[in-house]
């Protein structure tokens, strides 16, 4: 028996990460994993994790949490309303969003439609509509030479490009915004090395791109946009133009996305502050990409779905009413920051240093990386929240205050903090007194 197995088979258990830890089949009686409880018709019932076990698996050492069986509670049975909701969700997964037929199998999300619709060719070629279902058309993957031509074409328009991972939307290089270029020689050296997708850095290219997405099959519009005929971002944008008594700005450079959405390209206003990325600021399923953001160029693919040029025209200047709606809120003036009450002992000093270090990293994040830095900050402090060292409401308040000061949108802040705290809760971290 190896030394590590001998150590973890100690009946008393070895403390690892603040929890008693045992090797597989070495835990004393009275403990069980979630799966073992479920097989016995039980659930943890809100009790804290009591210990953990280790075992060797594919990829290295694996872990699982243990709970006390004497504190476990019987499993809850689903109510009729819950069963009805589950049945409705399962039926929705078998309903094709393209033809509306209920199939005996689940609709593959990668296709976005049933196999019959996927295998049926379009009736006739024509200009695609702005709102299209999530269909996946059979298409040949572009070659490196074709993507090079697309990248050079974007550079000729003055748009700074950078490589994306092949058949993906993610950048293939770090610091993509600073490394985006219009230099034909650099572009040729890059795209002759492989079939990289073409990304356009909106900020350096003086572009503002409005992204009109399509709704998922089971997605319903919120009450504000619950109007007959509204089923996607393009419909919401048309309604937004109507409410503002403005024409639909469709006579501009337009690209259809791989998921059936639409990208409307506009030039950034010459005066006024730099516009940033937004998510839902204009309306349901409407995002924008500007400074700190990028879009996939026409001719590239993502997950086998092509981005196609719909209307080849010079990008129009961003209409003034849209620029006013997208103008970022002024940064909050420096004032009294949110203070987290902590004990005046060694443990409190450790927590104070952890909070200050996290806030320093967040407030110093460069433009374009602030949202990701906020997520990492919430994840870091979320581990301490899950371990009982910090209160969730206090962490949320201090992160919200710091994120607001650096100019993030309120809706974006709340969603990112909740996601980071939930992710951090997967690995609780305790602090010794």
Automatic annotation (TrEMBL):
| SUPFAM superfamilies documented for this protein | Prim-pol domain (SSF56747)
Which CDD domains is this protein grouped with? Prim_Pol (cd04859)
Under the heading SMART domains, the entry gives: Prim-Pol
- Where's the DNA primase/polymerase bifunctional N-terminal domain? 151-322
The UniProt entry, under InterPro entries, shows: DNA_primase/pol_bifunc_N, QRL_CxxC_CxxC
Instruction: Return the NCBIfam families for the record.
Output: QRL_CxxC_CxxC
Which protein are we looking at? Bifunctional DNA primase/polymerase-like protein
């Amino acid at each position: 028996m190896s030394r590590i197995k001998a150590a973890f088979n100690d009946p008393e258990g070895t403390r690892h990460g603040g929890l008693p830890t045992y090797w597989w089949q070495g835990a004393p009686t009275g403990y069980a994993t979630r799966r073992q409880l479920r097989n016995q018709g039980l659930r943890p019932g809100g009790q804290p994790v009591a210990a953990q076990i280790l075992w060797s698996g594919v990829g290295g050492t694996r872990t699982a949490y243990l709970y006390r069986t004497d504190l476990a509670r019987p499993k809850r049975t689903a109510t009729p309303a819950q069963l009805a909701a589950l049945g409705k969700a399962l039926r929705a997964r078998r309903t094709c969003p393209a033809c509306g037929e209920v199939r005996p199998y689940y609709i593959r999300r990668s296709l976005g439609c049933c196999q019959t619709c996927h295998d049926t060719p379009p009736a006739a070629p024509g200009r695609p509509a702005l709102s299209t279902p999530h269909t996946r058309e059979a298409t040949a993957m572009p070659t490196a030479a074709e993507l090079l031509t697309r990248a050079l074409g974007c550079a000729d328009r003055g748009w700074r490009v950078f490589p994306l991972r092949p058949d993906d939307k993610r950048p293939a290089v770090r610091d993509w915004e600073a490394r985006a270029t219009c230099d034909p020689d650099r572009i040729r050296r890059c795209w002759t090395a492989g079939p990289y997708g073409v990304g356009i850095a909106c900020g350096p290219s003086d572009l503002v791109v409005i992204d009109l997405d399509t709704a998922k099959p089971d997605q319903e519009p919120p009450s504000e946009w619950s109007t007959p005929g509204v089923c996607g971002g393009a419909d919401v944008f048309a309604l937004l133009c109507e409410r503002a008594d403005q024409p639909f700005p469709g006579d501009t450079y337009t690209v259809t996305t791989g998921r059936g959405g639409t990208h409307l390209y506009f030039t950034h206003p010459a005066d006024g502050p730099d516009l940033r990325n937004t998510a839902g600021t204009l309306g349901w399923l409407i995002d924008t990409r500007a400074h700190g953001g990028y879009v996939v160029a026409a001719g590239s693919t993502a997950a086998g779905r092509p981005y196609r040029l719909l209307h080849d025209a010079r990008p129009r200047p961003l209409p003034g009413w849209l620029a006013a709606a997208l103008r970022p809120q002024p940064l909050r003036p420096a004032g009294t920051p949110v203070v987290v009450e902590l004990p005046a002992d060694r443990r409190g000093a450790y927590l104070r240093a952890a909070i200050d270090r996290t806030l320093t990293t967040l407030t110093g994040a460069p433009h374009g990386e602030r949202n990701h830095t906020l997520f990492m900050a919430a994840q870091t402090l979320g581990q301490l929240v899950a371990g009982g060292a910090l209160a969730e409401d206090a962490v949320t308040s201090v992160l919200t205050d710091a994120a607001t000061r650096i100019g993030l949108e309120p809706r974006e802040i709340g969603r990112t903090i909740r996601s980071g705290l939930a992710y951090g809760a997967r690995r609780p971290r305790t602090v010794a007194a």
